Amino acid sequence: MIMQNPYREVYALGQHISMSAHKARRVIDQIRGRSYEETLMILELMPYRACYPIYKLVYSAAANASHNMGFNQASLVISKAEVNEGTTFKKLKPRARGRSYPIRRPTCHIRIVLQDTSLYDLNEDFYGLEEDQIFCLKKAEWKNKYNDMTYHNMYNSGGLWDKK
């Protein structure tokens, strides 16, 4: 019987995506630590423009996991999701009286890392790991705190403030 390495992760990287890194982080923070299927539902229903490229990256990372590593898509969890700033495209727009106005188009690099949680269900003694190494493998406790989807949507919970 061949033992699987519990440290295997699968990722997808999208470079030079034409949007601000700050706007992409707003969406990435909502899906970090969630399961694959729950993430796809969240990204389909969120009203932001950044959701579509992130949706494609999550879908691509899951396809990499199932095709290259043989992971089951139902047991995938987003372990890491990061957004870095890319290059900024600079153009000049002609304005009145022969002047020019600079236009900056920011880009970003998005990296989605998926991890297979079915490996955590197996007996850790089977791998012969020490107790401190098992702690690194297990799912972090803070991820259980964010299971409620309404927790993140703090702006719609109370509506607009009434100034009277």
Automatic annotation (TrEMBL):
GO biological process, any: translation
Record family assignment: Belongs to the universal ribosomal protein uL22 family.
Location in or out of the cell: Plastid
Listed Gene3D superfamilies: Ribosomal protein L22/L17
Pfam families on file: Ribosomal_L22
Job of this protein: The globular domain of the protein is located near the polypeptide exit tunnel on the outside of the subunit, while an extended beta-hairpin is found that lines the wall of the exit tunnel in the center of the 70S ribosome.
GO cellular component terms, semicolon-separated: large ribosomal subunit; plastid
Assembly and interaction partners: Part of the 50S ribosomal subunit.
MF terms (GO), sorted A to Z: rRNA binding; structural constituent of ribosome
Keywords: Plastid, Ribonucleoprotein, Ribosomal protein, RNA-binding, rRNA-binding
Protein origin, superkingdom: Eukaryota
UniProt protein name: Large ribosomal subunit protein uL22c
